[in-house]
Amino acid sequence: MPLQALDTSILPSDALSFYDNSFYDLVKNIAGTTEAKLLEIQGIRSVYSFLHTDDIFEILTIKCSALNDIKASICLEADDKTFIVKPGYRSNIRYLYKLLHQKHEEHLKEMSNNSTTINRHDFAIHTLNEWINKQGIKFGIPNVKLTENEDFWLLIGDDETDTPPSISCSCGIKVQLGVIRGSISLSNYYKHLKSKSCIIKKKISKHINGESSKIIDDESSDAETSQNNSKSKDIQCLTSVSTMNEPATISKSNKRTTDQDNNSLSKKKRI
User: What would the pLDDT profile of 164-183 be if each residue is shown by its tens digit?
Assistant: First the structure.
């Protein structure tokens, strides 16, 4: 008769990592003290060592004085001196095996789901920032990004059967996201970002306008600097021209003085 799924909640959350005494105590609580001794005498010291042992009762077929006490507890001795394992002990070990094996399967599934959730989350964040960056590039401003848990909050369930993924915008609007072939679709959030009511759009616009204004200011500053440099050069040129003209003026003055002296001497000779 097939067994139904077992309730693994009776196990500690970290049961799969139990080793030595903690493992044997677990076996005592679930299966029994004698069963724990049977595992200990075989050197089965952990959950995974137990799960990888084909038949823990096989050792009882060996004639060994160290096994006599355990064999007397677990087995029935037939008249022909053969030993038969009591069904109850086999049942206890089978239950322990199925319980720990199911716990292991649940652990693997949980790891897989967590990995899928992380991958879907990272993919959504990358896709969103890629779209935002493209919008910025249209305005000539690259590297525009939104910050998670500040500009938006992304909620993704463990799998596709859980609550549909959604994203909460910092403006207070929660947007339901679609799932297409296992991948999250952000088209609904894109529509929201383009709406007039979204403050994120205003933030991006402010960032873009701010960068544009900065560029304009830089260009104006460069133009002003260039103009000042040009004026400075003009002043230097004027100064140079003025300096070059001064010797000519002095020369003309000296010439007038010489002419006056010559005229005076000429008059004296006539007298």
Answer: 888 888 888 888 887 766 66
